[in-house]
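Here is a tokenized protein:
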Amino acid sequence: MQAALEHLRKVIFAIHPLQENEWADFAAIWQRFDAKRKTMLTKAGETERHLYFVLNGVQRGFYLHDAGKEATIVFSYPFSFSGIVDSFLTQQPSRFFLETLTGSKFLRTEYRQVNKLLMRYHNFQTCMFKALSFTFAGVLERQIEIQCFSAEEKFRVLLRRSPHVLQLIPHKYLASYLGLDATTFSKLLGSVRL
């Protein structure tokens, strides 16, 4: 557990350092949680009660259209946060699903515990604000990619930003994430080099 908390501490302190008592209270709210491959952690219609910190494995958040088409919107892997964040923060039902693509190990906490710390520590609010600001900036950048970039440009950006995902994540999910059909993704995989 101590090694897992050290990974969490590095990520948090890179966003915004906490005082030692704030860190101690934050570290105390996390528990270990393991999930098997293809476990649905959150379903559309459910309210996200947990925030996850990924220690091992890969997960994906996705939207399922009424016509049955899936759109992968985000991946999480070590050492990042996971969960359906908008549902977690608003405590409203999720429009998205969160599933494990591989067996996964996490630290996990609950909304009420995070909210208690937000009410207690202004510095913790600052840390959360900065984390959400970075996340929002990433979402806006991704929106530009989705709306303006060609298939090849989207693929190149993915390879520059996260080349390791080609080995971690099944290609059908990467194609969905990029908004490409499987054939186009396969052609790009064979032709694009950085």
